[in-house]
Design a protein that fits this description.
Blueprint (H helix, E strand, L loop, with lengths): L1 E6 L2 E7 L8 H15 L4 E6 L4 H13 L2 E6 L8 H8 L3 E4 L5 H14 L4 E3 L7 H17 L7 E6 L3 H13 L4 E6 L4 H19 L11 E2 L12 H14 L8 H13 L8 E6 L10 H5 L1
Pfam family, one: PALP
Protein name: Tryptophan synthase beta chain-like PALP domain-containing protein
GO molecular function: D-cysteine desulfhydrase activity
Length: about 300
C-alpha cells in the first residue's frame, strides 16, 4: 500500500509495512529470524522488549503459530493496558519482568532453562537486531525500487530503534539509488550510540553480501525528537500526529511512526530537507500503541 501527498513543497510517498497483528516492520524482520531458527532445528525462542514492543509481540504470536514455547524478557512494568503486552500475554508466551540492565543475564538464564528441559532455543536480540533483520530490509529496499519505478526518493525517512531496519535500507538503497539518503529518526537512542551500532550493522551486512562498506556520509541517525527516551511524548508530537491524520488520513503512533513523521516535518520546516525534494516515508507500523493516548489525541 502507498499514499502520495505533499507538505511545504516536498513530495512525499508513504509506504506501509502491514500485517494482521499490526506488527509492521517487525513481522517482516521476524520472518527472517524464524526461517533461520527453523533451519537450525530450534523449537523455542528467547527475546526481549518493552511493554510497547512490536518486535516482542510479533515474536510471541509467531511462536504460538509454530507451536513453540517463547520467553519474552520485558524491561518494563506489568501493565496490560499496553496493547502489545496484552497480546504477548494472550499468545501464551512466558513473560519475565526485569530491569533494562538485567535483560542480558535473564535472557541467558532462560536459554539455559530451555536447554535443561531438552529444548533447542533460539536467541533473538531485542528489536530483532541481527543479520536476518538487516537482510529483511535490504530485500525490502529492492522490492520498493522494483515496484516504484516512477518515484526515486532523495530521502527515505523512518523510525529507527536498534538500527537493523535502517541498516538494511541503507545498504539496499546505496546499491540501487546511491543518490538517496536514508534518515533514521531515533525513537530512543542518543545519536552517538545509535550511529555506532548502525555503522557496525551496515558493515556486517555489507561484508555478508560481499559489498564495499558504505561511507560515513550514509550513516544518519537523528536523536532530536527522542524527548525523555523510549515511549516519551510531547504536545508537539501529538500536534503532528493529529495534523497528518486530519490533512492526509495518515495514521501514526507516538512511540514509533509518529516520532518519525514529526522528525520529517521538522526537517522540512528547518530546511534539512529542501523544497522540491522527494521523500519516501517508510511507515513501520505499530498502531496499537496509539490507543493508550486517547485523551491527548481527541483534544
Amino acid at each position: 500500500m502507498k499514499m502520495d501527498f505533499s507538505y511545504a513543497d516536498v513530495s512525499i510517498r508513504a509506504v506501509f509495512d502491514a500485517s494482521y497483528d499490526a506488527g509492521g516492520s517487525k513481522r517482516r524482520k521476524f520472518s527472517y529470524f524464524l526461517k533461520d531458527a527453523i533451519e537450525q532445528n530450534a523449537n523455542a525462542i528467547v527475546t526481549a522488549g518493552a511493554a510497547n514492543s512490536n518486535h516482542a509481540k510479533v515474536a510471541a504470536l509467531a511462536c504460538a503459530e509454530q507451536g513453540w514455547e517463547c520467553t519474552i524478557v520485558v524491561h518494563d512494568n506489568e501493565d496490560y493496558s499496553k496493547g502489545n503486552l496484552l497480546l504477548m500475554k494472550m499468545s501464551g508466551a512466558r513473560l519475565v519482568f526485569t530491569t533494562l540492565e538485567q535483560v542480558g543475564p535473564v535472557m541467558d538464564a532462560e536459554m539455559q532453562r530451555f536447554r535443561t528441559e531438552g529444548k533447542h532455543p533460539y536467541y533473538v536480540y531485542g528489536g530483532g537486531h541481527g543479520l536476518p533483520g538487516y537482510l529483511a530490509y535490504y530485500d525490502a529496499a529492492h522490492e520498493f525500487v522494483q515496484a516504484n519505478r516512477d518515484f526515486q526518493p532523495d530521502f527515505i525517512v523512518h523510525a529507527s530503534g536498534t538500527g537493523g531496519t535502517q541498516a538494511g535500507l541503507i545498504v539496499g538503497f546505496n546499491q540501487l539509488l546511491p543518490h538517496s539518503q536514508v534518515l533514521g529518526v531515533s525513537v530512543a537512542r542518543q545519536r552517538a550510540r545509535g550511529e555506532q551500532v548502525l555503522r557496525e550493522s551496515c558493515d556486517s551486512l555489507s561484508q555478508y553480501l560481499g559489498f564495499e562498506v558504505v561511507g560515513d556520509d550514509k550513516i544518519e541517525f537523528a536523536d532530536d525528537w527522542i524527548g525523555d527516551g523510549y515511549g516519551s511524548t510531547s504536545p508537539e508530537l501529538f500536534a503532528t500526529i493529529k495534523y497528518f491524520a486530519r490533512k492526509h488520513g495518515l495514521i501514526t503512533d507516538p512511540t514509533y511512526t509518529g516520532k518519525a513523521l514529526h522528525g520529517l516535518k521538522q526537517m522540512i520546516d528547518n530546511g534539512r530537507i529542501a523544497p522540491g525534494s522527494k521523500v519516501l516515508f517508510w511507515h513501520t507500523g505499530g498502531l496499537i500503541n496509539l490507543f493508550e493516548h486517547t485523551q491527548e489525541l481527541i483534544k
